[in-house]
Amino acid sequence: MARPSTCPVGTVTRGTTNPNRLRRMDRWIAAWHGRALRARDAPLAVDLGYGGAPWTAVELLHRLRTAAADVRVVGIEIDPARVAGAKPYEEDGLSFRLGGFEVPTTPADGPPVLIRAANVLRQYDEEQVAEVWRRLCGRLAPGGLLVEGTCDEIGRRHVWVALGPEGPRTVTFATRLGSLERPSDLAERLPKALIHRNVPGEPVHAFLRDFDRAWAAAAPFASYGARQRWIRTVRDLRADWPVVDGSSRWRQGEVTLEWGALAPRG
Length: 266
Description:
It is built from 9 helices and 8 strands. It is of the alpha/beta class. It has an 8-stranded mixed β-sheet with strand order 3-2-1-4-5-6-7-8, with helices on both faces. The longest helix is centred in the N-terminal third of the chain and has 16 residues, at 23-38.
């Protein structure tokens, strides 16, 4: 059994969580990172800051096992009461332990191939994000992935950044299309690194402006459904923005871009 960190790094979050809240992120991870998970025996994934209930860690285990049958998941929380409350939900391949951004693992664990940190950094200052990213990426196995982002309480709207040991790679916008009035509705779920940059002169502001314009131009496709309108919108966006995924992901209500296109200026 891992020895808990004597001084977890970070602060306690509100702990708000709901079943299926992170399904969009999980689905994306399984699709984009499944090959890296399958390339290792019993790969380790970390659900960092799972909150007041262990649902997201339980769901992560079962969703990742659709991509890699022998994956293991460790849920990490900085609040001892939350860890104690999660213990009854442990099962084969799933455990819970005390910790924070130091990501406590044992030699038997090996370094994680995936760290998922959802709805954790919202309470931190923007100036703290780069250091947290650096610390977490430093804990990854070679070829590992950090996914950090924010979603609403029931997982309808979600934006996340994917990072490797070298730093940020992509930004993904994901939504339940039936609930979307315009793409810029996703602005309120931008991760901490971007949410204060949605102002004129910043790339993310320009992107959301262009996204709304392309959505408006694709209005005739709404007669075929919101999915077809979204697909047409993203096809048009590719003329000016570095979209890195394809129609199989767009059909899920997603679009992923290179991080460099949206990175804050300065």
